[in-house]
Amino acid sequence: MIAQTTPPPTASIFGRIGAITRRDMTIEKSYHFRLFLQFFNAIFTVATFFFLSKLVGSSEYLQEYRGGYFTFALVGVLVTQSSYLGLRTFSATVTREQDAGTLEVLLSTPTRLPTLMAGTFVIPAAFTAIELALWFSIAAIFFDVRFPITGLLIGLPLLILTLLVFCSIGIFSAAFIVLTKRGEPFTLVASQATTFLAGAMFPVALLPGYLQVIAHMVPAYYSLTGLRSVLLGGAGFVSIIDEMLVLAAFAAVFLPLSLVALRRAIRSARVTGTLANY
Question: What is the rounded distance in angstroms from the CA atom of residue 136 to the CA atom of residue 96?
Fold first, then answer.
């Protein structure tokens, strides 16, 4: 990136984010059936969880959660989709720009790296929000499942911290792709850890003792624990402060390190002349 002696005005930053967003929206408009496919996928996925909940029944591991396995799984979907958004957005952007041969051009503009990344995040975040809204609307309309508004508001800071943590991991992924031009290990490991170890689809209490210990090292564990306590257990804000502090600590460490890693990866690729290779 071209160094700047003074940061650009706020209006300029938002203008550049807006320009990147408009570019990405123009690309997305070429996929005419995307929203329809999201709606179609949401119907069948929510229905699958509903009928699976009938099979699971009233497990002793789910007694503390209102609504049984169905609502338990829906909260798991909320966290996994949010984590996938952070994990995949930046690495997918780097891969797309490499394939198009525009990565070096994009990185040679006066726009600072965080601004570029924020711009590329807007459209994926919007589509993820639409997808989640479809999931929960279908659950409410067809299966009479509603989450308390108070719980959603209380859990929002927890969800934002979750996004920050997984965006940090996604930035590490992007740095790896800049250097290697190939697939990276971070997304697969983090997504599997979220789904399996953190308890997205089943309670962590079902795991062997040593895996339960490892589960406490996975950021999504704290997201799931906190969100389920406020959405399904009726807990208040005070009850999730510990989870928020843990996620804030993850974000405080991972985010600056990931940005440093991406900057160094870009600098290294420029020195070796491989930044434009695809």
Answer: 31
Residue 59, domain extent: 32-272
pLDDT digits (tens, 9 = 90+) for 33-69: 776 777 778 888 888 888 888 887 777 778 777 778 9
Which of 59, 77, 74, 39 is CA-nearest to residue 145? 74
**Is position 21 within any domain?**
no
| Residue 237 DSSP code | G
Q: At which residue do the structure tokens 């099979």 appear? A: 55
Supply φ then ψ for residue 200, to 5 degrees.
-65, -40
C-alpha 63: how far from chain center: 28
Q: Determine the Cα angle at 251 with ends 95 and 244, to 5°.
A: 135
Apex CA 89: angle with CA 87 and CA 93, to 5°? 135
Q: Tokens 């711009």 label which residue?
A: 119
**How far is the C-alpha of 218 from the C-alpha of 13, rounded, in Å?**
34
Q: Does residue 164 lie within any of the structural domains?
A: yes
For the chain, the domain total comes to 1
Quick one: DSSP state of residue 184?
A: -
Look at residue 71 and tell me if it is in a domain. Answer: yes
- Pick from 78, 69, 74, 85: nearest CA to 46: 74
- Write out pLDDT tens, residues 173-229: 989 888 887 666 788 888 889 888 998 988 998 999 999 999 999 999 999 999 999
N-term to C-term CA, the chain: 19
Cα 81 to Cα 126: distance, rounded to the nearest angstrom? 12
* Contacts (Cβ under 8 Å, ≥6 apart) of 46: 74, 135, 138, 139, 142, 143
75 in a structural domain: yes
pTM of the predicted model, to two decimals? 0.84
Rounded-to-integer distance, Cα 169 and Cα 245, Å:
18
